[in-house]
Amino acid sequence: MTIYVILCPIARNGFSMFKSYSGYRLLSRLVLFLLCSFVVGLVVGQVLWVMLLASIGLLLWHYKQLSRLNFWLWRDKRLTPPNGNGSWEGVFNGIYRLQGKNRKRVGQLAHLLSRFRQGAEALPDAAVVLDSQLNMLWCNKLAQLLLGLVWPQDNGQRIDNLIRHPDFSLYLRKAQFDDPFEYIDTQSEGRVLEIRIMGYGAGQLLLIARDITRIRQLEGMRKEFVANVSHELKTPLTVLQGYLEMMQGMAEPNSPSIKAMDQMQQQTNRMRSMVEQLLVLSRIEDASAVNLEAKVNMTVLMDTLKEEAKALAMDEYELSFDSTPKLNIYGNEMLLRSACSNLVSNAIRYTEPGGKVAIAWKRVALGAEFSVTDTGEGIAPQHLARLTERFYRVDSARSRQSGGSGLGLAITKHALSHHQSDLMIESKVGKGSRFSFIIPNHLLE
C-alpha cells in the first residue's frame, strides 16, 4: 500500500508533465496569445500593427530562448539547464532528461567495460584485440609483458609492426588461422611463444599468446629419453636373443625347457620390434622438415604392400586391392611406406580369420586417398580420439596376443603430418573399420 501511495504521485507528475508539454497544450497557448493580441488591437483600433508587434516580440523571445539553449549546450559547464518559460520549458527539461538517460547508459557501458577488462586481465594468456585491418585496439597487462607491447602508446598500430618476425608476417598474410603460430623469441633467452588468432564480433580479431617454453622442453626431454633408452636396449636384447638361439640349438628334442625358451624367444622378438618402432618414431619426430620434392612411385609401393598383406594373411583372409595406375606423389617413400604398412597390418591383425580387408589407392576431389577397410570387430566411439596416442590400446589383452605395441598409429600420424595429411578413422562396433588419409593435390605428380 505504501509503494502504491509513493508511485502514484510520481506517475501523476510524469503524466501531467507530459500533458503540459503536449502539442495540443502548446497550440492552445499560441492561439491564446494571438487572441489576446487581437483583442488589444481592437481596443486601440490598430489590429494589424498590434498583431505585427506581438509576432515580432514573440519571435524575439523565442530567439532569446534559443540563444540560452545554444549557450548552455556549447559553453556552459553546468549540467542543469536554464529555467525555461512557456513552450521552451519542455525543450530544456526534455534535453536534460535525455542527458540523464545517456549518462546512465554511459555508466552501464563503463561498468560492463570495466568487468570485461577485469576478466581479460585475469586470463592466464596474453590477449590482444585487433580490428579487421590488424590494428591493435586493446591488450591486457600480460600481453605487455609477454609480447613487449606498450599500452596505450601502441594503440592503433598494426600488430606485425609490434611483433617483428618474418614468419609471423607471412602467417598474417595467409590469413589461415586454424593452426597456431609458434616462434622463438630470441630477445628473451629462446622463449617459445604460441599465438592463436580467432575472429569475433563485427570484423574483430582476438590474438591469444602463451609461453610454451616449458612444454617444448618437456617434449624434448621425453623424445630424447625415449630415443636413448630405445637405443640402449638394442644391445642387451641382441645378446639375449643370441644366447636364446644358442640354448635352443643345444637343447634336447624332448626337453621341458624348449617351451619356455620358445616363449622367451617370442617375447624377445616382440620387445625388439617395439624398440625398433620407438626408434622409428623418434626419428620421425626429430625430422623438422621432410623433403617433399622426391617422387614416390605408388604403383611399386602398392605392389610391395600387396605382397606384405598376402604374407600376413596366409590365405586366411579375403584381400582386395584397388589401385589407380600412374597416380604418383611427391614425398618421403620410407615414411609413406611405414604409414601404409601399419594400416594394412593392423587391419589384418585385428580382423578374425575369414574376414575381408580392402586396400585402395585412388583419386578424389581433394587429392589422392589411401584407405584400408576391414570387417573386424570395430572400435567404440570413445576410443577413436585416442587411437594415435603412444601405447594406447583398446583391448590390452588382445593386443598382447596379436603382438601389437600400440605405436603403429602414432608412427602413422607423425608420418602423415610431414605430408600435410591427417589420419581419418571411421568405425562401427560389430561391422568393421576404415582407416584413410588424403595426400593433397599440390603433392601429386
Structure write-up:
With 445 residues, the chain is an alpha+beta fold. It has helices at residues 2-20, 23-44, 47-74, 87-121, 141-147, 159-162, 166-174, 213-250, 257-286, 298-313, 333-349, 381-384, 396-402, 408-417, and strands spanning 126-130, 136-139, 181-185, 191-200, 204-211, 295-296, 318-323, 329-330, 356-364, 367-374, 424-428, 432-440. It is 55% helix and 16% strand. A hairpin with a 3-residue loop joins β4 and β5. The model is unreliable at 1-18 (pLDDT under 50).
Highlighted features:
alpha+beta, 5-stranded mixed beta sheet, 14 helices, disordered N terminus
Write the layout of secondary structure elements.
Layout: H1 2-20, H2 23-44, H3 47-74, H4 87-121, E1 126-130, E2 136-139, H5 141-147, H6 159-162, H7 166-174, E3 181-185, E4 191-200, E5 204-211, H8 213-250, H9 257-286, E6 295-296, H10 298-313, E7 318-323, E8 329-330, H11 333-349, E9 356-364, E10 367-374, H12 381-384, H13 396-402, H14 408-417, E11 424-428, E12 432-440
Parallel strand pairs: 7-9
Antiparallel strand pairs: 1-2, 1-5, 3-4, 4-5, 6-8, 9-10, 10-12, 11-12
